[in-house]
Amino acid sequence: IRDSLDVAGAIKVGGAINLPGITVSGTSNFDKIEVNSLSIAGDTSIQGQLTVQKNLTVSGAATFSGTISAPSVNIDS
């Protein structure tokens, strides 16, 4: 296909797919997503557990409504 393609139903792909650019609008569900770099411009809600393997930097205020557990905590003020 070298021009536009309109599909009225579901698309099923049995193997890998390479998309140089993709825009998704509306509600979408994905079983697993792997991303090398992620930037989110709007509000974000994570309903499951979040694990950070390296550093976490917060440039604004942070609110925690549960217990915080850490082997050490350094606070400037």
| Structure annotation, total helices | 0
Radius of gyration: 20 Å
* Dominant shape: elongated
Record field, number of beta strands? 0
Distance N terminus to C terminus? 61 Å
- Major sheet summary line: none
Spans with pLDDT under 50 lasting ≥5 residues?
none
Mean pLDDT: 89
Strand content: under 5%
Percent helix, as a range, is under 10%
Counting helices, strands and paired strands, the structural category is: little secondary structure
What's a concise summary of this model?
The chain has 77 residues and is largely without helices or strands. Helix content is 0%, strand content 0%.
Walk me through the topology:
Elements: no helix or strand
Tell me what you see in this structure.
With 77 residues, the chain is largely without helices or strands. 0% of the residues lie in helices and 0% in strands. The protein contains no helices and no strands. It is elongated.
Features:
single chain, 77 residues, little secondary structure, elongated
